[in-house]
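To the structural biology subgroup,

Please find below the input and predicted structure for Fibrinogen C-terminal domain-containing protein, which we are adding to the shared reference set this quarter. The sequence is reproduced verbatim from the submission form. If anyone notices a discrepancy with their own records, reply to this email rather than editing the shared folder directly, so we keep one authoritative version.
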Amino acid sequence: MAYRQFFLKLFVILCYTRALYATVDLRKFTTCKDHYASCRIREQWTAVKVFQCYFYCGRNYWCRALTIKPIAGGVTCTFHEGIFDVNCKSFPFQKNYNYKLLLKNEVYESPDDNGCKNDATYNSGNCQCLKGFTGTYCERYVRDCREAKEAGVTLILYQVVHVMIKPTGNNYAFEALCNYYGYIAILIRHAQGYDVAFNRSFEEYKYPFGMINNYWSGLENIYAVLNQGETFKLQIFCHDFTTGTMFSVYYNAFHVTSSPNMYQMSVGSILVDPGNEGSDGLGENNNDIPFCTYDKPCNGYPNNINGGWWYVNGLQKYALTNPKSTVLFKYRHADFSADSVSVSLERL
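Predicted structure (tokenized):
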């Protein structure tokens, strides 16, 4: 009798699993292991079984991506809308947290409202775009953080906000971190943030990795932003929590080349915020400085501990991807130990 009950229970479980698989075709999703998305969140909730999340996303047309994070007794599922023209490398990679990102493969054409695209509405002769889309018919993503701000995306003072952007000429969209002023963060380091290793290969540095407080935007994304026919300025912000000292330095005409040329950096003259007295730790007025990693070193830099960077002769110790305890920049022409650093791009 016990055997019959056991096999009956097993049969019911198998039938349930088969039915669930039948209603959720996982071939409709691209699975991105150890990736996660943080933008365009419509819903978030916990579930006991991950297939509950697959089923919900699969059945709702608006759900374009699903981020899954294991927790005790189940999973947290985050459902994203309005995500198009993306791939796994559009989103940060981070090991050790067991994230899984699923991107819906099927092509979704939102209903037109008098020619308006991407779920925009037609009102008084104009298309009213969802935040993050722009164009006459709301047909495209914003191309950078400045345009996001101009298009009505809510940016928050003293914080960064996750925004989908698609630079002009780029063949995919990606998630960017935008600050209140419309700058794009390309590097964030924070002494009290998640522990993220920056000693990575050249290939790993091509694409975004890390968490919000210790984050790299990816060389491919930096190249895409900087090669739209516009001029960008680079900002480096440093903060020492112990003394409260903080300052910014700016560099004119920051530019990088493509991967075959090792993302060579060209940078103009330094500009310093009045009264802040920051000094040049990057190397102003330099051209053709390659991005170097442990597997593609330049003149011995970096070593097996430090991260990838544009290493300028004489300024190697100011690489902002060095281990947390040794992140230095220059202040009043002397070494400055920074607890928090951000590097951002501003379109002029």
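Summary notes: Residues 131 and 152 are 6 Å apart (CA to CA). Residues 10-22 have pLDDT under 50 and may be disordered.

Regards,
Lab coordination
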